[in-house]
């Protein structure tokens, strides 16, 4: 599959000079946020990573290539075109073979990052087991990818639109360490907390890098979750978001929305129900994840 990789000049130079690189997903741009805030967010994330001493590599599928590092025009296309496909592991071969434009989810970004030799990836929140997943069997392919692909995913936990308890059970079964970065609680995206704890709390990037290196040198394949709570000043109280989430879930059910459309629908609905405040929180947590991921990439390079 390496024949499909296409590196931007910036990422190519970083690889040649042994600079730390942070992968970024693109579904968050195309399906996670409205235009034009999404494109501004994507550019700012890249700059945060550069300012912290690493090189950003936003990933997407375009013209039959797996692009590792995007130009400004690519970000604009991903953010503004209505016909961008949401690409998870399942969709990857079709979108690549047909030359269509595809935004990568956490799962698909992990696949591409591993192929490109990038160990650290920053996102917003991971997919997981959906509420009532025991009936619908809606379990994000992100979890299965975390079980097998060697990338550390810096995220703000999992959204409470999901069944966080079952999501954590699934991760445990598949041997995915859930590391709390400077926290004992598993964060729930908009909030710094949830009812659940993390497996291990670590307070420095160097300590996280050590665990990554140890896991993979043991031959224990698979990813790690580095759960990094949203900064306190941008947090949404856990109780407030629960009622709003319930309303969004009810509407999704009434409208019969299922499958890959459900996460984007719920994100948009929650934004409307919070009069845009959830979007501000979402952007703030992504910036924070980008910064922590950059520190982690630097530490891992030095480990
Ligand atoms: N959570 C967010 N914003 C997002 C997503 C999740 O807060 O944009 C995206 C990510 O790309 C994630 C995907 O990998 O949704 C999960 O979708 P699904 O549940 O269909 O696997
Ligand atoms: Mn799903």
Describe this structure in words.
- This protein has 303 residues and is α/β, with parallel strands linked by helices.
- It is 48% helix and 14% strand.
- It has 13 helices and 11 strands.
- Strands 1, 2, 3, 4, 5, 6, 7, 8, 9, 10 and 11 form an 11-stranded mixed beta sheet that branches.
- Strand 5, helix 5 and strand 6 form a beta-alpha-beta unit.
- Helix 10 crosses helix 13.
- It starts with a strand and ends with a helix.
- The model has no long low-confidence stretch (mean pLDDT 96).
- The site of pseudouridine-5'-monophosphate has 18 residues, from helix 2, helix 8 and helix 12.
Structure at a glance:
By secondary structure, the chain is of the alpha/beta class. 48% of the residues lie in helices and 14% in strands. Strands 1, 2, 3, 4, 5, 6, 7, 8, 9, 10 and 11 form an 11-stranded mixed sheet that branches.
Radius of gyration computed on alpha carbons: 18 Å
What's the number of helices?
A: 13
> What's the order of the H and E elements?
EHEHHEEHEHEHEHHEHEEHEHHH
Q: Tell me the total number of β-strands.
A: 11
Mean pLDDT: 96
Instruction: Report the principal-axis shape.
Output: globular
Low-confidence stretches: none
Class by alpha and beta content: alpha/beta
- What are the bound molecules? pseudouridine-5'-monophosphate, manganese (II) ion
Helicity level, as a percent range?
Answer: 40-55%
User: Describe the biggest sheet?
Assistant: 11 strands, mixed
- What share of the residues does DSSP label as strand, in percent? 5-15%
N→C terminal distance: 28 Å
């Amino acid at each position: 599959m390496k024949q499909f990789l296409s590196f931007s000049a910036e990422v190519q130079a970083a690889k040649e000079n042994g600079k730390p690189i942070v992968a970024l997903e693109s579904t968050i741009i195309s399906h996670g946020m409205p235009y034009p805030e999404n494109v501004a967010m994507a550019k700012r994330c890249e700059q945060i990573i550069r300012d912290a001493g690493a090189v950003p590599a936003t990933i997407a599928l375009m013209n039959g290539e797996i692009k590792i590092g995007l130009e400004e025009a690519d970000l604009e296309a991903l953010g503004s075109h209505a016909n961008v496909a949401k690409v998870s592991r399942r969709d990857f071969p079709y979108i690549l073979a047909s030359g269509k434009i595809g935004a990568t989810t956490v799962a698909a970004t992990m696949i591409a990052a591993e192929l490109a030799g990038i160990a650290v990836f920053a996102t917003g929140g991971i997919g997981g087991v959906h509420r009532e997943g025991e009936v619908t069997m809606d379990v994000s392919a992100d979890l299965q990818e975390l079980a097998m692909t060697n990338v550390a995913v810096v995220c703000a936990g999992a959204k409470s639109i999901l069944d966080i308890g079952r999501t954590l059970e699934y991760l445990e079964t598949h041997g995915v360490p859930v590391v709390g970065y400077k926290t004992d609680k598993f964060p729930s995206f908009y909030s710094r907390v949830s009812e659940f704890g993390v497996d291990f709390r670590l307070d420095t990037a160097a300590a996280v890098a050590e665990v990554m290196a140890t896991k993979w040198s043991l031959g224990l394949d698979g990813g790690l979750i580095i759960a990094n709570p949203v900064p306190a000043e941008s947090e949404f109280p856990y109780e407030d978001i629960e009622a709003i989430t319930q309303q969004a879930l009810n509407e999704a059910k009434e409208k019969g929305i299922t499958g890959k459309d459900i996460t984007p629908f719920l994100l948009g609905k929650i934004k409307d129900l919070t009069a845009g405040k959830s979007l501000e929180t979402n952007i703030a947590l992504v910036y924070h994840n980008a910064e922590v991921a950059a520190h982690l990439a630097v530490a891992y390079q030095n480990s």
